């Protein structure tokens, strides 16, 4: 009889614990959904980068569900201290097996928090350059000018120098051209400046300039510069290079080329 009474008490207690756990799960799930909506509204109002906002929402969601699981397990009478020890050992084993992935994850978090660039920016790195198409927690994807996709691990890109060409709305277009030592340097500079000023996409704010940049083997290098909208940079540069080449030739400015003269002596 005593055993039956014990089993009856145990069964009733177990049923109560299971019922309480189900109630905790249902209420907890609704509270988590409510909390996530609050986080989504908060990140939206602050104008936070969408990639970072998604990451923060994911972290909050995981943390809240882990907390809910521990509350439910505790309600069912499981020793949570032992569970934490087991999970800690498992996490250590997984961490050792996935060191590279964890390094990429850490790099992704660093990129999202420091925001050295965002989706849509044109960046230059030692591992590739192009328009940022995606930033996730493992890698960053760039699209090059010829529509190739460069996938760079976040651990590598976060540890390398990055040049962000889209931080400012304008970019300076620099073009350097070698000219013969016998050519009129002043005339060559004027021709290059005229080409810049004649281009419709060069900003006419007095920043177009030119200078003698360097002395080279067969003459000198003349450099010119001017600003344009960042999105038009490559089209403007390519067109200017063609315009300058034609204008210098028409103006009698010689562009020197390396050449080798071969003399054949007949004995």
Model regions low in confidence, pLDDT < 50 over at least 5 residues = none
CATH class annotation of the largest domain: Mainly Alpha
The CATH topology annotation of the largest domain reads as: Helix Hairpins
Query: Which term fits the overall shape?
Result: elongated
- Give the helices and strands as they follow along the chain: HHHHEEEEHEEHEEH
Strand-residue proportion: 15-25%
Q: Percent of residues in helical segments?
A: 40-55%
CATH architecture field of the largest domain = Orthogonal Bundle
Mean pLDDT across the residues is 83
Summed up, the helix count is: 7
Strand order within the widest beta sheet:
4-3-2-1-5
Distance between the termini: 129 Å
């Amino acid at each position: 009889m005593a055993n039956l009474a014990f089993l009856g008490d145990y069964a009733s207690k177990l049923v109560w614990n299971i019922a309480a756990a189900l109630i905790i799960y249902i209420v907890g799930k609704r509270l988590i959904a409510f909390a996530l909506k609050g986080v989504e509204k908060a990140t939206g109002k602050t104008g936070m980068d969408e990639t970072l906002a998604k990451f923060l929402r994911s972290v909050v969601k995981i943390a809240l569900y882990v907390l809910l699981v521990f509350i439910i397990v505790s309600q069912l009478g499981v020793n949570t201290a032992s569970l934490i020890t087991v999970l800690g050992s498992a996490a250590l084993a997984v961490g050792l097996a996935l060191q590279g992935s964890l390094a990429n994850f850490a790099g992704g978090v660093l990129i999202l928090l420091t925001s050295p660039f965002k989706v849509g920016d044109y960046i230059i790195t030692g591992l590739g350059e192009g328009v940022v198409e995606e930033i996730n927690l493992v890698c960053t994807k760039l699209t090059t000018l010829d529509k190739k996709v460069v996938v760079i691990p976040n651990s590598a890109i976060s540890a390398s120098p990055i040049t962000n060409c889209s931080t400012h709305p304008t970019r300076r277009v620099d073009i350097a051209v070698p000219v013969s030592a016998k050519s009129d340097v002043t005339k060559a500079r004027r021709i290059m400046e005229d080409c810049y000023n004649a281009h419709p996409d060069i900003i006419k704010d007095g920043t177009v300039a030119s200078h003698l940049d360097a002395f080279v083997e067969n003459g000198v290098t003349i450099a010119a510069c001017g600003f344009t909208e960042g999105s038009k940079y490559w089209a403007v540069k390519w067109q200017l290079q063609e315009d300058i080449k034609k204008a210098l030739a028409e103006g009698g400015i010689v562009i020197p080329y390396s050449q080798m003269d071969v003399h054949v002596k007949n004995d």
